[in-house]
Amino acid sequence: MISKLGYLSWEIWKSRNCAIFWNSNIEPMATITKARISETKFVEANKIDEQKQPFTNKRNSIENRNLYRRRVTWRPPIGDRLKANVDGAFRKESGKGAIAVVIRDNEGKVVAGSAEIVRATSSLSVESMALRSALILAKNLQLKNILFESDSLPLIQAVKVKETIGEIDPILRDIYVLMEGISNSGFTWTHRESNQLAHQVASLAINGRLNRNWTWDQPVEIRGIARREARITYKQAMTEQQHFQHNFQALQIVRR
Fold first, then answer.
1. Residue 82: count of CB within 10 angstroms of its CB
2. Both 67 and 131 in a single domain?
3. Engineered SS bond to 143: which of 68, 123, 138, 180, CB 3.0-4.6 Å?
4. What predicted TM-score, i.e. pTM, was given to this entire model?
């Protein structure tokens, strides 16, 4: 909450300076968007630092982990952008895997998705198949301005710089070709805790408990996660709007 207020105040101050010194118009939504982007980068950087910090004892470890999990949740895309979360489930003993794609808008509504049973050799291969499936789905639906999100750090690191990884090289080559056909796309890593919906879809699929029409006839498990995360998204948006209005009113008073 403090970081949201801090970055919002910073962007309001910059907008005020632009208005005073360069005669530019103050655009509230643009200011909010810039603040959200800066705050997101700050939060993500701190998540990585928290993971690296050792805990002094078992009790502190559990308490800190539970607190951390309560804070981490799915974050909506900014503006009119879409976000495609991908995940995979893998059973090493049988080589059976399941891949899941969930595409949502900035209100947390599921607009499209897919799930499929696959044969795989590792968790990484399943994760890469899921990302490829998301790109294929986006291309088939002619979607643009979309952010692809996965909790597989090695995969996202490779995709961002177009590296090759031996065991999944053919899949990566497909991904790199598909990327070129989707304008204004991006790729980002997220924690497992904020990738719960795609994870749940993959879990239900590999256990044979997912119906073919799950995107609109959602099972209880999926509907519960989707509604909870959409509710959090709405609350965050309302809080940010209230903070902006409060700070904007304060700014107007100062200018008078």
1. 21
2. no
3. 138
4. 0.68
